[in-house]
Amino acid sequence: xxxxxxxxxxxxxxxxxxxxxxxxxxxxxxxxxxxxxxxxxxxxxxxxxxxxxxxxxxxxxxxxxxxxxxxxxxxxxxxxxxxxxxxxxxxxxxxxxxxxxxxxxxxxxxxxxxxxxxxxxxxxxxxxxxxxxxxxxxxxxxxxxxxxxxxxxxxxxxxxxxxxxxxxxxxxxxxxxxxxxxxxxxxxxxxxxxxxxxxxxxxxxxxxxxxxxxxxxxxxxxxxxxxxxxxxxxxxxxxxxxxxxxxxxxxxxxxxxxxxxxxxxxxxxxxxxxxxxxxxxxxxxxxxxxxxxxxxxxxxxxxxxxxxxxxxxxxxxxxxxxxxxxxxxxxxxxxxxxxxxxxxxxxxxx
Length: 350
Description:
Elements: E1 6-10, H1 16-23, E2 27-33, H2 39-46, E3 49-52, H3 60-67, E4 74-78, H4 95-111, E5 115-121, H5 128-139, E6 143-150, E7 161-168, H6 187-191, H7 216-223, H8 242-245, H9 292-298, H10 316-325, H11 329-349
Parallel strand pairs: 1-2, 1-4, 2-3, 4-5
Antiparallel strand pairs: 5-7, 6-7
């Protein structure tokens, strides 16, 4: 039974990765994160303890206490803050920003979990800290594999390229083969059934189906953007941002203030994905940016997922942070099923 295997999720956030494991039958016992606002959502949906704390202050004894008696495998997973390694980071990476990943490696050394999974942006692959992470796995006797994955190949309805690493004390471990290479989930598959709303409107049926208000100028811009995949290159000169008229900014004209395409996966969800000017986050047809509900569906959160307590007021920026920072639930399922396959193969050899 998968429930014999206990999982702790470092940098758990609102619980997307953990929920993928829960849906795959694993026993998630705890998640660790320094964003205390995630406590309600993580615990309500995953029935696991939320440890509110900075990863740098968490000890191996604390985690071992959370694991308790483990009859099956001890599994440690996590997605360290990825912003430092993102291509959007133009400021360089500081030593302080590397500390969470270094602590992840230290906890592996101290706890010696049976299985480890790490997910991050593909830019991490080029950073020396990743080589150090691998050296730490080597020193502790792990078999491991890693690859750059577009999770749209696995049924996540967005083009989301990520570095995924799996490691095991017990033998070779690999990600399962792609499940959706020939039939990717599209924007149409994901949000076409939702009711039409305008910018600034909140659905009476679904409080998360709410769109940010647009300024008069941005309303003109979205109306001037061709439906189903159009971008700002179609605008008249008076609508173009001054910074985009310069040679240095011209390349951004096709990537921001654009609309999604109905029959393709969405662009990668971020914490800014409900803002029209932050990427290609315009609705394919309606004159607005995507809503919180649409963002959550692109992140494959079930509609039943509770992000905040019923008595809490919905704050768009806070929920966009929860949703955009999350590992898609479907991605969590793929990682969990890869680990399940590995465990079954080990058991078959006994």
